[in-house]
Amino acid sequence: MTVLDDWVTAVCAEVGLDPTDVPVSAVLDLARDVAHQVVRPGAPVSAYLLGVAVGRGADPADAAARLSALAADWPVRLDAELADPTS
């Protein structure tokens, strides 16, 4: 087991979830896609929103794929736009 596996198992025990119900790879892939294509702080927020959607009945794999696709299609901002927030 990895440290991540141990962490997920401990968190699941703390909040009453089954670790086998946690799509770790899908969440990590989504976080990577958002961090690289949109904005780094969007990664944990997107992971949270994925969890909310799943908690409300969304299919985890489908929701993660849809959010990753949204991130992939997100318009890339140039460095000049990042320096000037009024752009």
Keywords:
about 90 residues; mainly alpha
Please indicate the percent range of residues in DSSP E strands (runs of 2 or more).
Answer: under 5%
Q: How much is the radius of gyration in Å?
A: 15 Å
Could you tell me the number of beta strands?
Answer: 0
Distance from N terminus to C terminus (CA atoms, Å) equals 46 Å
- Count of alpha and pi helical runs: 5
Q: Helices and strands, in N-to-C order?
A: HHHHH
Alpha-beta content class: mainly alpha
Q: What is the 3D form?
A: globular
Low-pLDDT windows of residues: none
Largest sheet: none
Overall pLDDT: 91
Helix content class: 55-70%
Mind explaining what this structure looks like?
The longest helix is centred in the middle third of the chain and has 14 residues, at 24-37. The chain has 87 residues and is mainly alpha-helical. The protein has five helices and no strands. It has helices at 3-15, 24-37, 42-55, 60-72, 79-83. The protein has a domain at 21-74.
